[in-house]
């Protein structure tokens, strides 16, 4: 006690309690020492002090014990043990007293179970127990010791529920409360052995998916996500469930991405090279495991290649099982696109129908499944999962299509299906699909054949090919589908007359334009004349310049080279209506303009029709031609030359005609045979040289010989190329 005196002489006291102890204050047998002291100062400054007597208190020794667990009722998921196998149960004896103590097992009850062994588990190994006598190692306050009980279950039946109880007792005597006991309880449930299966339960294979589907398409350098899904459909825990997944060369697992039911796997996962190994300590009955991890696809791998792999899953006492396969197709697939424009032009609102070999629409699964197709963005690195249960399927903005076929819809030896595709402004398509099952009937090879003569897309890409295309080890993927516009090169054709009589001169005009945004290579014009018309040589003009076609029979050909995007052009030429044409007949003149756009043929066509009327010159022949001033000095009419009007041309019989404002003339009906044409020099304008000395077969001559070979394929103009005076 310490006392303090203030100025008024009043004493204030404070109690100073000193506790002096040896060891822990709550350990039984511990002495607690208490001493009090008091001091004060008086007004004169004198100090006074006093010390009390010592009080010693001894902590009583108490016995206390707690045996756990104390299961009130069984848990079928955690307590199940396969019948005829050993069951182990571990109890914990905790020292809840304030003294060190050792324990003995005084009772063990296990019903119909056979006690095979019981042992204390210490740092030096198991200590076998004899009921009622064996003492455990000495356990300090707060410590514990485990007891392992091994039980035989041969007398059990599936579904039996048997409690297992042990009673333990303290051994230290002389405590205030004497010896103490406690009982713990666990259960053993008779069940079947552990059975690793797929998510669908007993009998279903362990599943493996990539991007949540059986097969997906992605780009080199992308990251895909694998899922391995396993369930324990047995009646006992599966211990040390081990998953080994050896990925194909070029596919590398990412260790940091591994999760088990959404929780990072941590030390339970390891990677060596391209092999991922995951060990799960235990999988309870009816529990499921979703092992998920990401993997990187090497950037140098080839498009169109499928990378397929399976994983193995095992556990203690359970041999390894193989999962269903998962497949990654490098590149893109299942996109409808403009075949001329390429992958950057997917086609929306295209109707894609899957037909059976009989031509009927194929019924599809009405709910999502692992066979669902991964809908791929055109040119994207990965795909998102979407269920395709509509037939026909209508493409969205990305041009994606797909069909959720079930493996049961494909015959073991293969099945034939057909795809038809229709979109506004594009040619319809019809393709044959030959589908043959491969790995575990979970994947297939599909070979696509074009039945419409149009190109296909190479496997995994958008490059056009005229060959059949095969995708290997896929499911739900049929390839990219190119469509081609109905009009790619616009063509027009007109005739100068709608009705003609034999001997008439008939002019044609052809217009064309490349309406794509890509160049049309090796473009050419093929113009086919009908019987009854012959080409007038020297009359053809391409974009206004002389350009004689190649003539093969009735076909006139102009090679245009390359037509740039949106480039247009025109061709004009003249023909003669033969006297042999039947009155009332129609002359159909057809022209095709074609080229190669992005590796595929592109073309357009047009025609013009004229009617033949009865004329006065039937069964006669025609002479036609032009008189022109040869300013370009080539001897034949071309851009820059000028027709000479008003020139009179005599036939040897004295008949004559006069050139029109373009220098053109014709004798519409002459007898078959040779003839002589001569220019009347008095009608030639001044400034033109009239003294040219040239042979009768030269265009420079003022007098020309017509040989009279007038059949349908050799009719020709007789032109006069006049030169200006020097």
TrEMBL record:
Pfam family, one: DUF11
Listed InterPro entries: Chlamydia_OmcB, DUF11_rpt, Ig-like_fold, OmcB-like_DUF11
Record-annotated DUF11 domain positions: 211-316, 489-610
PANTHER family for the chain: LARGE CYSTEINE-RICH PERIPLASMIC PROTEIN OMCB
Name this polypeptide is given: DUF11 domain-containing protein
Organism of this sequence: mine drainage metagenome
């Amino acid at each position: 006690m310490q006392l303090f005196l203030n100025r008024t002489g009043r004493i204030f006291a404070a109690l100073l309690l000193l506790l002096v102890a040896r060891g822990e204050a709550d350990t039984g047998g511990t002495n607690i020492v208490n001493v009090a002291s008091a001091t004060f100062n008086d007004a004169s400054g004198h100090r006074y002090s006093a010390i009390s007597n010592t009080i010693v208190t001894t902590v009583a020794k108490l016995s206390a014990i707690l045996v756990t667990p104390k299961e009130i009722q069984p848990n079928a998921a955690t307590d199940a043990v396969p019948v005829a196998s050993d069951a182990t149960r571990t109890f914990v004896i905790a020292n809840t007293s304030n003294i060190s103590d050792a324990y003995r097992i005084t009772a063990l009850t296990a019903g119909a179970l056979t006690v095979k062994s019981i042992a204390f588990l210490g740092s030096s190994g198991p200590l076998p127990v004899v009921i009622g006598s064996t003492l455990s190692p000495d356990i300090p306050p707060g410590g514990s010791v485990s007891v392992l009980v091994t039980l035989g279950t041969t007398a059990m039946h599936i579904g039996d529920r048997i409690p297992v109880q042990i009673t333990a007792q303290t051994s230290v005597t002389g405590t205030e409360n004497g010896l103490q006991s406690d009982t713990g309880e666990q259960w053993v449930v008779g069940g079947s052995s552990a059975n690793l299966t797929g998510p669908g339960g007993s009998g279903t294979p362990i599943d493996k998916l990539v991007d949540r589907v059986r097969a997906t398409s992605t780009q080199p350098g992308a990251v895909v996500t694998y899922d391995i899904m396993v369930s324990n459909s047995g009646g006992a825990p599966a211990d040390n469930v081990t998953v080994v997944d050896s990925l194909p060369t070029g596919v590398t697992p990412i260790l940091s991405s591994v999760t088990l039911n959404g929780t990072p796997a941590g030390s339970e996962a390891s990677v060596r090279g391209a092999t991922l190994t995951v060990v799960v300590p235990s999988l309870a009955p009816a529990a499921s495991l979703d092992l998920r991890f990401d993997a990187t696809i090497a950037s140098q791998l080839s498009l169109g290649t499928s990378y397929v792999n399976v994983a193995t899953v095992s556990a203690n006492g359970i041999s390894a099982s193989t999962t269903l396969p998962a497949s990654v197709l490098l590149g893109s697939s299942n996109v409808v696109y403009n075949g001329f424009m390429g992958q950057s032009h997917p086609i929306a609102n295209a109707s894609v129908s899957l037909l059976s070999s009989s031509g009927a629409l194929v019924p599809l699964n009405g709910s999502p499944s692992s066979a669902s197709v991964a809908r791929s963005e055109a040119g994207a690195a990965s795909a998102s999962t979407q269920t395709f249960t509509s037939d026909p399927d209508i493409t969205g903005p990305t041009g994606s299509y797909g069909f959720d076929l079930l493996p049961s819809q494909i015959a073991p030896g293969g099945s034939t299906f057909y795809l038809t595709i229709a979109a506004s402004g594009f040619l319809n398509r019809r393709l044959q699909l030959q589908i043959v099952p491969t790995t575990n009937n979970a994947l297939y090879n599909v070979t696509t054949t074009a039945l419409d003569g149009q190109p296909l897309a190479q496997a995994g890409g958008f490059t056009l090919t005229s060959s059949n295309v095969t995708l290997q080890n896929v499911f739900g993927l049929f390839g990219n589908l190119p469509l081609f516009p109905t009009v790619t090169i616009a063509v027009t054709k007109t005739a100068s007359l709608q009705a003609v009589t034999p001997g008439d001169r008939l002019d044609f005009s052809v217009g064309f334009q490349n309406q794509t945004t890509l160049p049309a290579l090796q473009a050419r014009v093929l113009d086919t004349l009908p019987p009854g018309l012959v080409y007038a040589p020297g009359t053809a003009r391409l974009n206004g310049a002389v350009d004689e076609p190649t003539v093969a029979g009735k076909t006139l050909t102009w090679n245009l080279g390359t037509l740039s995007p949106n480039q247009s052009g025109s061709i004009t030429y003249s023909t003669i209506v033969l006297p042999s044409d039947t009155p009332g007949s129609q002359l159909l003149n057809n022209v095709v303009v074609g080229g190669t756009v992005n590796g595929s043929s592109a073309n357009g066509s047009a025609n013009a029709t004229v009617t033949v009327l009865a004329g006065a010159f039937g069964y006669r022949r025609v002479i036609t031609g032009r008189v022109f001033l040869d300013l370009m000095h080539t001897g034949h009419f071309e851009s820059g030359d000028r027709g000479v009007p008003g020139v009179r041309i005599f036939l040897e019989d004295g008949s004559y005609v006069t050139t029109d404002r373009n220098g053109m003339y014709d004798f519409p009906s002459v007898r078959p045979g040779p003839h002589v044409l001569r220019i009347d020099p008095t009608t030639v304008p001044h400034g033109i040289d009239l003294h040219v000395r040239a042979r009768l077969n030269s265009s420079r001559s003022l007098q020309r010989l017509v040989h009279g070979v007038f059949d349908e394929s050799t009719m020709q103009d007789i032109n006069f190329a006049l030169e200006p005076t020097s």
